[in-house]
Design brief:
The complex is a heterodimer of chains A (about 110) and B (about 120). With about 110 residues, chain A is an all-beta fold. Chain A contains no helices and 11 strands. In chain A, strands 2, 4, 5, 9, 10 and 11 form a 6-stranded mixed beta sheet that branches. A 5-stranded antiparallel beta sheet of chain A has the order 1-3-8-7-6, with no helix packed on it. Helix content of chain B is about 0%, strand content about 55%. In chain B, the strands form 2 sheets. In chain B, strands 2, 4, 5, 6, 9, 10 and 11 form a 7-stranded mixed beta sheet that branches. A 4-stranded antiparallel beta sheet of chain B has the order 1-3-8-7, with no helix packed on it. Classes of the chains: A mainly beta (about 110), B mainly beta (about 120). Chains A and B meet through strand 5, strand 9 and strand 10 of A and strand 10 of B.
Chain lengths: ~110, ~120
């Protein structure tokens, strides 16, 4: 079966750095997405990785290793507004998105 | 503003009611999706429409019936639902279906409670 694993919940301190990991086992691979979802709101796109390596976008970076079936989302200089759930999703060989259950990130002052 | 709107935002219905959820996208996209989101579970893809034709139906019970009258509108018709159908129903759209890198844009969702 297809599976995406990410931690259920993480806690970090305002101003710090946090890394949210995602491992996947899917039928083929055609890219990996990270989305942010604030409570009661729609998921919004953060990043897309299809090749190995690091993609940086402001305070957020996303890393991919296809050989290890592994990605992480790195958030720097954490702000209170970063408190949200972070969803990892992989496009499989049929171009279907397989979603993880999300990581709830709690930021403390 | 995501460009995808959904109505209603909240819905409470009895098991014998019939109701419909509406989604509209203003992005000129060719693909639209219905997802079910339950607490602490992955997003469950229910239906996909590409160019107004249904291309995916992931073993969804027949009490859920989608309709896509044009590329901008998507409906989910509900009838004789069960309490376990209570969830957040999300609509999304993307430029195309069946290509890599086509990010999805989500609506705010309809919070459905079945009593």
């Amino acid at each position: 079966g297809q599976n995406i694993d990410q931690p259920t919940e993480m806690t970090a301190t305002e101003g710090a750095i946090v890394q949210i990991n995602c491992t996947y086992q899917t039928s083929g691979f055609n890219g990996l997405f990270w989305y942010q979802q604030h409570a009661g709101e729609a998921p919004t796109f953060l990043s897309y990785n299809v090749l190995d390596g690091l993609e940086e976008k402001g305070r957020f970076s996303s890393f991919l290793s296809r050989s290890k079936g592994y990605s992480y989302l790195l958030l720097k200089e954490l702000q209170m507004k970063d408190s949200a759930s972070y969803l990892c999703a992989v496009t499989d060989s049929n171009y279907q998105l397989i979603w993880g259950a999300g990581t709830k990130l709690i930021i403390k002052p | 503003e995501t460009g995808v709107t959904q109505t209603p935002r909240h819905l409470v219905m009895g098991m014998t009611n019939k109701k419909s959820l509406k989604c509209e996208q203003h992005l000129g996209h060719n693909a639209m999706y219905w997802y079910k989101q339950s607490a602490k579970k992955p997003l469950e893809l229910m239906f996909v429409y590409s160019l107004e034709e249904r291309v995916e139906n992931n073993s969804v019970p027949s009490r859920f019936s989608p309709e896509c009258p044009n590329s901008s509108h998507l409906f989910l018709h509900l009838h004789t639902l069960q309490p376990e159908d209570s969830a957040l129903y999300l609509c999304a759209s993307s430029q195309d279906w069946g290509t890599s890198g086509s990010e999805q844009y989500f609506g705010p969702g309809t919070r459905l409670t079945v009593t």
